[in-house]
């Protein structure tokens, strides 16, 4: 027998039968060949390594107390080939009874050497008891912690106790003691973790700490964008420890601390609906539909000008060099480098080339800047975006006709074709500068200030029924003041935990592809049983 092959009695959760089986540890999967019945046909079960989240050894009662010859392999199995179907993933086990303890030990050691078993790491779980409809604690207790129990990972759990507590935790956590910060909540708490890490004096080290999410909020857009649609897959992802680079946007306003975003920035209808949906939190994910519908029938148009910087690959080097601030050495950088901070000066009326104004847009009914394919768990916007391609995608519209706006949201919410309707225009960009016509804190009328009277109070503006209110600036579901704002992209700034099989069809990621193939083959083998 080759060193990667073993004999054991095998049985599976939910099946009574125990068979004498031949096990083989391959490049990407454990294969179990077991006789099916009296006719000596064999059945083959495959357990992809990317689905194994732990193991335990125990003593088999029949062979005596001195023998630790039983190995229970814990893994996630899928009932169908759609790895994004939330109900397809289940936890299960394979029980392997070896003749001798040495055989069990050798099996574990070989599996470890081949990367079949999770590598020990230290995890800090941040659980928001108020996230979504308050289910995060239950998810942590019934799914996350039980799965972590056999993983070999060291786990600390902390509840967030107040709004923005996760910022405080991430800005102070001892990075020598934690390998990954994992949020059991929604996008809001992950946004806070990113902002906490990037606000640290040692941000250049902190940004390399991997971050992860177990979706337990109501939007869960980032998890859905990563293909993490169930809590089982999310916890498996945390345990396996595979990471991908994540682009981050920075949002700068004069005399205010920088804000960092991993997901989206919006202004107009979607921002209004997202923030206003907070009053319907008890509805769960449906809150976005209800708030969205109300906002669509009472649509607003906000005045403003938006300037766009082309993405790096479209820029002509001779026109950009003069814009760059001198590069600082990493040890002196107090925060991720910003190249166009000087554009926040309100004396600069027109940012110089290669910036350009979005033409013929005196007002916006919606504006959305996206880093990921999903804007919510159930709103799959487009598959043309990568969260690590170094590009921002901007969608905008001045449309105000109710039916025009409603159609894509009714028919295309989940098929990624929303952007194909003739509603929004889109642009690839490396940065944007937004100059709203009215500034202020959206919820405090005493702060509202008309900055550009021509755009807001002129008779032409009045004739177009332009809203004389700043509107909401929404970043990852949180409100920021409405003011002149510079948004820049920082390509691959952070590392996010992703399923090992996360792969886009046109990416040349052969390892991820191999993992995906292994999982699909395992599902097919399972279905033949
Ligand atoms: N103990 C707490 N009490 C009150 N608010 C909290 C507490 N812990 C965290 N928060 C706040 O809860 C807010 C919502 O959290 P989160 O965004 O994770 O959930 P969600 O809004 O349901 O999900 P999503 O953003 O995906 O829609 C965050 O702004 C966070 O600051």
UniProtKB/TrEMBL annotation:
Biased composition (Polar residues): 313-326
Coiled coil ranges: none
Gene Ontology biological process terms, A to Z: sphingosine biosynthetic process
GO cellular component terms listed in the entry, alphabetical order: cytoplasm; membrane
Protein name: DAGKc domain-containing protein
Entries under InterPro entries matching the protein: ATP-NAD_kinase_N (IPR017438), Diacylglycerol_kinase_cat_dom (IPR001206), Lipid_Phosphate_FormReg (IPR050187), NAD/diacylglycerol_kinase_sf (IPR016064)
One GO MF term: phosphotransferase activity, alcohol group as acceptor
Residues annotated as domain DAGKc: 118-255
Taxonomic classification: Eukaryota, Fungi, Fungi incertae sedis, Mucoromycota, Mortierellomycotina
Region of interest (Disordered), ranges: 310-339
Family annotation (PANTHER family): ACYLGLYCEROL KINASE, MITOCHONDRIAL, SPHINGOSINE KINASE
């Amino acid at each position: 027998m080759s060193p990667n092959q073993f004999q054991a009695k095998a049985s599976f959760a939910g099946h009574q039968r125990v068979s004498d089986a031949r096990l083989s540890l391959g490049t990407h999967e454990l294969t179990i060949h077991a006789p099916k019945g009296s006719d000596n046909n064999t059945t083959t079960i495959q357990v992809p390594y990317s689905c194994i989240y732990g193991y335990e050894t125990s003593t088999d009662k029949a062979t005596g107390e001195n023998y630790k010859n039983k190995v229970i392999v814990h893994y996630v199995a899928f009932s169908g080939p759609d790895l994004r179907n939330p109900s397809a993933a289940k936890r299960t086990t394979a029980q392997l009874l070896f003749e001798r303890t040495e055989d069990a030990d050798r099996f574990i050691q070989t599996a470890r050497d081949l990367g079949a078993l999770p590598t020990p790491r230290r995890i800090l779980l941040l659980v928001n008891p108020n996230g979504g409809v308050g289910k995060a604690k239950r998810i942590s207790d019934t799914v996350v912690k039980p799965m972590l129990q056999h993983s070999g990972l060291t786990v600390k759990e902390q509840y967030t106790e107040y709004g923005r507590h996760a910022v405080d935790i991430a800005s102070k956590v001892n990075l020598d003691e934690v390998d990954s910060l994992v949020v059991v909540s929604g996008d809001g708490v992950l946004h806070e973790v990113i902002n906490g890490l990037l606000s640290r004096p040692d941000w250049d080290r902190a940004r390399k700490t991997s971050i992860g999410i177990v979706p337990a909020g109501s939007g869960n857009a980032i998890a859905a964008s990563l293909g993490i649609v169930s809590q089982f897959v999310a916890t498996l992802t945390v345990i396996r420890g595979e990471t991908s680079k994540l682009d981050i946007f920075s949002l700068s306003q004069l005399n205010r601390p920088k804000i960092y975003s991993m997901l989206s920035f919006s202004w107009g209808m979607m921002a209004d609906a997202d923030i206003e949906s907070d009053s319907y939190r008890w509805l769960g994910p449906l809150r976005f539909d209800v708030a969205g519908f109300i906002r669509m029938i009472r649509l607003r148009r906000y005045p403003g000008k938006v300037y766009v910087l082309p993405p790096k690959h479209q820029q002509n080097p001779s026109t950009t060099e003069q814009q760059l601030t001198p590069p600082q050495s990493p040890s002196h950088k107090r925060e991720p480098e910003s190249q166009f901070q000087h554009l926040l000066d309100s004396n600069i009326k027109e940012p110089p080339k290669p910036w350009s104004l979005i033409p013929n847009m005196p007002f916006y009914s919606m504006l959305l800047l996206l880093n990921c394919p999903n804007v919510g768990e159930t709103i799959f916007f487009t598959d043309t975006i990568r969260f690590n391609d170094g590009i921002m995608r901007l969608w905008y519209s001045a449309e105000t006709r109710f039916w025009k706006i409603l159609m894509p949201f009714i028919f295309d919410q989940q098929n990624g074709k929303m952007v194909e309707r003739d509603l929004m225009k889109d642009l690839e960009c490396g940065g944007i500068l937004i100059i709203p016509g009215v500034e202020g804190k959206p919820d405090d009328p005493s702060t509202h200030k008309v900055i550009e009277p021509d755009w807001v109070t002129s008779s032409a503006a009045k004739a177009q029924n332009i809203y004389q209110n700043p509107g909401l600036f929404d970043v990852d579901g949180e409100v920021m003041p409405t003011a002149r704002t510079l948004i820049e992209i920082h390509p691959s700034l952070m590392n996010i935990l992703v399923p090992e099989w996360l792969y886009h069809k046109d990416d040349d990621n052969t390892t991820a592809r191999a993992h995906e193939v292994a999982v699909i083959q395992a599902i097919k083998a399972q279905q033949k049983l």
